# Entry
Amino acid sequence: MSVVSKLILQADDELRYPSSGELRSIESFLKTGEQRIRIAETLAENEKKIVDKASRELWKKRPDFIAPGGNAFGQKQRAQCLRDYGWYLRLVTYGVLAGDKEPIETIGLIGAREMYNALEVPVPGMVEAIRCLKDASLGLLDDDDATAAAPYFDYIIQGMS
# Structure
């Protein structure tokens, strides 16, 4: 849910108009709209490049994942890993666009850790994968955009840790 939606719902629940502080929050949110859209477009347009780079870096750091017996050994397992990386990248764009980490929490993190544990996917490996995804993504953004996007990756990393 966006900052605007949250503030409107909160004011409505309390049967009041938004406060001047809340209106300033909305104004700030709207001022960053172009940046948030630019970040989301860059990540979406470069998904394959980002996922490929992140996975190459992960396999270098953790060759045991793609070795016989590893969770990403074999074409099917590796494809599933890459699919998940794209899914997490998409979650980041949702958070960036909303200007809030709630979409990441409600769509992506609730139950993800338990799911990976049930599938015997090493969660520390997923955390490392998200770090590689973050590095590959932020490398495509200018400093200001990277600074704005980084907390969304960090939120996933923290939630998975």
